[in-house]
Each structure stands twice: as C-alpha cells, then as structure tokens.
Design a protein that fits this description.
The protein has about 220 residues and is α/β, with parallel strands linked by helices. The protein folds into two domains: about 5-15 and about 85-215, 3-Layer(aba) Sandwich (Rossmann fold); about 15-80. Helices cover about 45% and strands about 10% of the residues.
C-alpha cells in the first residue's frame, strides 16, 4: 500500500501570508497596537486562530474575545481571492499525484467553511480524502488528534501516512502521532526550527517537494 500523503494547507499548499498579514494589520490598527506585534503573530500561524491569538496577545493583557472580532472584521472572504495563491508549481504537483493514483488528505488549522471555499477556488475539490479541520477535532495542532482521526477513518497505521507541513506545529503533531513527516521551506517557519522535529526530508520549494514525495510515497 502506498502512503497516504497528508498535507497542511496554509503555508504548505498555498501562500496565504499576504491575507494573514493584511488581516492582522487591520486588527492591530483597530486595537491601537503597533505593527511590530505582527512578528509574534506570524510565529503562531499554523495553530487554530484562537490558539494563535491567545499566544500572541495574552502577554499584552488582551483576550481572544477582544482580538478575534477585530481580526475577523477585516473581511477575509472579500480579499482571499486576490491574496491567496497556490505556491508555484503546486497545482501541477497535485494533479500529477492524482494522475498517479496517489491518495492525499488534509490536516489543517483552517476552519472547514473557508477551506472548502478555497478548495473550490483552486478547483481542488475531490483531491483530498479525508479532510480534517478544527471543526472535526477537540484538540488542534500540535496535538496528534487530527492524524489519529485520519488513521481511524482510513484504517492505516502511522507509518502508512506521510505528513507534509511548513510549521513546527505540523511536524510536532506528526512526531507525537508517530507519523513520518516532510518539511517544506516556503511557508512560515525556518529550516533550523523544522529540523528539530526530525523530518525525513526538507523541501525548499515545490520541485524539491515533488522529488521527495515521489521517492517516499510509494
């Protein structure tokens, strides 16, 4: 049996950083905070948004209930079509993998409704099964529940999955679930951070990721 490739979404398949930054600039302005807090926020990208806000703003004395409405008032739906794009070559890679009969899934910190909308935007509906979002689990990344649920749904052992992600949260989740992982470098966390979670390989770009997946997935 070939491995099931489990992809993260933001920072792994698509470059959503422009949208994330625009939304946080809007929130910081609404809260009267300087933009240098953006760096701490970007370090938390990859967590469910509530957890990321908690980590970023609790040291400033602010609660999720105070920050989340400001962040969501940006109007992400109106801007996502212009500010989210697949990484160069990613659409072609996914189509190639599909053509080879490769099984693919998603484990993401993005909620199901916006994820579904964006999958439709890129014509990626039907490529991934199962799709696990924070709406399907009690504990988000880096807790291993998302990968444990994929194992339960597919009947696969941990070594029959391959997690592909761009953040330490993806790789820690995989490590805790006993699932091998591949780190990608075009997302949110630096190579030296990702290396600390012992991925099988590191892909700085999509062509490198293609070579790695073709070698490891079979």
């Amino acid at each position: 049996m070939t491995r099931l490739i489990v992809f993260d979404f933001d920072g792994t398949l698509v470059d959503s950083r422009p949208l994330i930054e625009a939304g946080m600039r809007h929130a910081l302005d609404a809260l009267g905070l300087p933009h240098h807090h953006m760096e701490a926020w970007l370090d938390c990208v990859g967590l469910p948004v509530e957890a990321g806000i908690q980590r970023t703003f609790a040291p400033l004395g602010l609660t999720v209930e105070q920050v989340l409405p400001a962040y969501r008032s940006f109007g992400h739906v109106e801007h996502e079509a212009e500010l989210i794009r697949p990484f160069p070559g990613m659409d072609e890679l996914l189509r190639e993998l599909q053509g080879r009969g490769q099984a693919m899934a998603i484990a993401t910190s993005k909620r199901r409704v916006p994820l579904h909308r964006q999958l439709l935007q890129f014509h990626w509906e039907g490529l991934f099964d199962p799709i696990i979002t924070p709406d399907e689990v009690t504990h988000g990344k880096p807790h291993p529940e998302s990968l444990d649920l994929i194992r339960q749904l597919t009947g696969r052992a941990a070594h029959e999955l391959l997690m592909v992600g761009d953040t330490s949260f993806d790789l820690e989740m995989a490590q805790r679930a006993g699932v091998p992982s591949v780190a990608v470098g075009h997302g949110h966390h630096a190579a030296e951070v990702l290396a600390g979670f012992a991925p099988l390989a590191y892909a700085p770009d999509t062509p490198a990721l293609r070579d790695i997946l073709l070698a490891l997935a079979g």
